[in-house]
Amino acid sequence: MPNVASYTITSGPISPDASGNVWAQASASNTALQNAYSSGGTYTSIKAALPSFSAPNLVTFGSNISNPKYVKWNLEVERSFGEKTALSLNYVGNHGYDLFLQNRTLNAYCTTTKCPNGFENLPTAAVDTRFANIREEANSGIANYAGLTFTATRRMTKSFTGSFNYTWSHTLDDLYEGGIEPLNALANPSFTVVIDPYNPQKYNYASADQDVRDLFTANYYWEFPFRADNKALDMMVGDWIWSGLLLNTTGTPFSVYYTSVTSSMLSNAANGRALAIMTTPGTGSCGRPSTTSPCLKSSQFLKAISPGSAQTTWGGGYNTRRNSFRGPGYFDMDMALEKNFKLTEKGLVLTLGAQAYNFLNHPNFDRPTGSLSSGLFGTIWETVGQPNSPYGNFEGAAVNGRVVQSSLKLKF
Question: What's the pTM value of the predicted model, to 2 decimals?
Answer without folding.
Answer: 0.84
